[in-house]
């Protein structure tokens, strides 16, 4: 697949996440895809409930800053923002907002995501939201 097709798939991933369109999100991942992130790792069905919780409780939004592709890999730098409007795990809604830089790396096969790694400053996000350990 061309790098343009892979980059388009990742833009669709960001758009689907921002809309909370989990059906489209599932279509962007290969059946054997593995997702690695700061809250754990597993198959998409293992991590999707956490993503839904993030989206609903923190009104999490992603903004693409940089998108770079080479071969079957795509790197993404994002501005992530949100507001704590619901309970997230044991943390209450604080109404506070946050902003952070996030990095994600993807591997794709035939236009589908096979691996996704995500990194962000979770400690900084928690501080901004007023969460304690």
Explain the overall architecture.
The chain has a six-stranded mixed beta sheet with strand order 2-1-6-5-4-3. It has helices at residues 3-19, 22-27, 44-58, 122-129, and strands spanning 29-37, 40-43, 61-70, 73-83, 97-109, 112-120. The protein has four helices and six strands. The radius of gyration is 15 Å and the shape is globular. It has one domain: Nuclear Transport Factor 2, Chain: A. A hairpin with a 2-residue loop joins β1 (29-37) and β2. With 133 residues, the chain is α+β, with helices and mostly antiparallel strands. The protein starts with a helix and ends with a helix. The protein is 35% helix and 42% strand. This is SnoaL-like polyketide cyclase. It holds the Pfam family SnoaL. One of its GO terms (biological process) is polyketide metabolic process.
Write the layout of secondary structure elements.
Layout: H1 3-19, H2 22-27, E1 29-37, E2 40-43, H3 44-58, E3 61-70, E4 73-83, E5 97-109, E6 112-120, H4 122-129
Parallel strand pairs: 1-6
Antiparallel strand pairs: 1-2, 3-4, 4-5, 5-6
Organism: Andreprevotia lacus DSM 23236
GO biological process, one term: polyketide metabolic process
Protein name: SnoaL-like polyketide cyclase
């Amino acid at each position: 697949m061309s790098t343009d097709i892979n980059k388009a798939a990742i833009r669709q991933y960001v758009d689907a996440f921002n809309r909370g369109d989990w059906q489209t999100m599932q279509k962007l991942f290969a059946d054997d895809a593995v997702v690695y992130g700061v809250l754990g790792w597993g198959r998409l069905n293992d991590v999707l409930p956490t993503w839904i919780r993030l989206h609903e409780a923190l009104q999490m939004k992603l903004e693409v800053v940089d998108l770079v592709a080479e071969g079957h890999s795509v790197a993404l730098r994002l501005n992530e923002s949100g507001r704590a409007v619901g309970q997230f795990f044991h943390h209450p809604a604080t109404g506070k907002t946050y902003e952070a830089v996030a990095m994600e790396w993807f591997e794709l096969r035939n236009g589908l995501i096979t691996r996704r790694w995500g990194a962000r400053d979770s400690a900084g996000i928690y501080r901004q939201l007023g969460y304690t350990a």
